[in-house]
Design brief:
Number of strands: 17
Distance between the termini: 71 Å
Radius of gyration: 23 Å
Helix content: 25-40%
Order of helices and strands: HHHHEHEEHEEHEEEEHHEHEEEHEEEEH
Strand content: 15-25%
Number of helices: 12
Structural class: alpha+beta
Mean pLDDT: 89
Largest sheet: 6 strands, antiparallel
Length: 389
């Protein structure tokens, strides 16, 4: 092995060892001997040696290191990611994103994957849906992009355009879509009475103020809401978990609202209902989908666990966790999940999602075609509300 190859292996292996050590320290479950014993590193060294010694052309050390680190992070859950120094600097700066948005909330699943689409947004008007994959953002491939980086690329000045290459169902049939970014409406929750008089509340986002807005909208429905209300959080992945928990407090009078668990069995934080909680005592039918994630999913899990709502729709996304930035050498970082929310029975909400009591089959809509008339999920929710909970 040449001195150059040994130096390259050192450069690549150092961040890898740091990642492994960090995992052990955060988990606090490994002994020093276990942390130092990773036979895979020997295999890794052999692979690097072969690449640098025998690959058909000279390789870029930085590119190889970046690929190795990203590959390690890719084996974790979708929110976790290996970050470049520029991405770490952006997190440190805590700079707000530009106000121009597409209305998309995304995660990582090989490419960038759409989780939520804001009603009435540029993305919604263009027909994008939960489950779509974005392969390119303004001619930048998303294969190596974290969800953080993709979200940053999607934002921009109001009136500016962003070009997306979107895949739905068939990877061999991508579609180019150009969206004009705009400032999204500040109203997070709306309400109305359906044709049969059933109270209906639509949550657009669990952004700041959503919990208070939800309470206000239900109160505005008056006596009709006292007999039961439909709350629609389908395709809602935008916002904060804390806001979802705050919203759940309106419906839960006592007991656990949310449970956050780390790696150790004893490392749990339980958020319980307190004085003044549970003021909204009416029956609730909760419409969910596989785009229900983050704050919306924790809200749904809280109401389902407390037997305060009947869930109708599709299984939820299984994205309900907390992440933190772990700093690495040379300015890099690891955005890593360190705790996840649990269901009432102790099973993880993150990674598994919630299965509704009343399932609704998802409707496949070919790209570029309008959604079929009618709303089977809402119809089932109305039927459940009429028949009593």
């Amino acid at each position: 092995m040449t001195s150059r190859t040994r130096w390259a292996i050192f450069l690549i292996s150092t961040p890898l060892v740091v990642l492994i050590a960090v995992g052990g320290l955060l988990g606090a479950t490994r002994t020093a001997t276990t942390q130092a014993s990773f036979p895979q590193l020997r295999v890794f060294e052999e692979v690097v040696s072969l690449v640098f010694a025998a690959y058909v052309e000279e390789v870029d050390v930085d590119k190889v290191m970046d690929g190795a680190m990203r590959g390690l992070a890719d084996s974790l859950d979708p929110p976790s990611a290996y970050l470049s120094p520029r991405e770490v600097e952006a997190i440190d700066a805590k700079a707000a994103l530009p106000p121009g948005r597409t209305g998309l909330t995304v995660t990582r699943q090989f490419w960038t994957r759409v989780i939520g689409v804001r009603d009435g947004s540029p993305a919604a008007r263009a027909g994008l849906r939960t489950g779509d994959f974005i392969r390119m953002i303004d001619d930048k491939a998303t294969r190596d992009l974290s969800a953080i980086a993709a979200t940053n690329l999607l934002a921009g000045a109001p009136g500016s355009k962003v070009k997306l290459l979107v895949v739905r169902n068939n990877p061999g049939d991508p579609h180019e879509v150009t969206l004009t970014r705009e400032a999204l409406p500040t109203d997070l929750v709306s309400s109305k009475k359906l044709a049969g008089g059933e109270p209906y509340v639509r949550v657009q986002s669990f952004g700041a103020g959503a919990a208070a807005a939800l309470r206000k909208q239900i109160d505005s429905l008056g006596a009709a809401a006292a007999r039961g209300v439909i709350v629609d959080i389908r395709g809602v992945a935008d916002g904060e978990v804390d806001e979802g928990i705050a919203a759940a407090r309106h419906f839960i009078k006592s007991g656990a609202v949310a449970t956050l668990a780390g790696r150790n069995e004893t490392d749990k934080t339980v958020t319980s209902a307190g004085s003044g909680d549970g003021a909204l005592a009416m029956p609730v039918v909760l419409l969910v989908s596989n785009g229900t994630a983050n704050g919306a999913e924790v809200f749904a899990g809280a109401l389902a666990g407390a037997k305060r709502a009947t869930l109708v729709g599709e299984p939820t996304a299984g994205l309900a966790a907390r992440q933190r930035l772990v700093r690495l050498p040379e300015g890099h970082g690891l955005w890593m999940t360190y705790a996840r929310y649990l269901q009432a029975d102790g099973k993880p909400l993150h990674g598994q999602g919630l299965r509704p009591e009343i399932l609704v089959e998802p409707t496949f809509v070919p790209f570029g075609e309008p959604a079929p008339a009618g709303d089977p999920g809402l119809d089932k929710a109305v039927e459940r509300l009429k028949n009593g909970l």
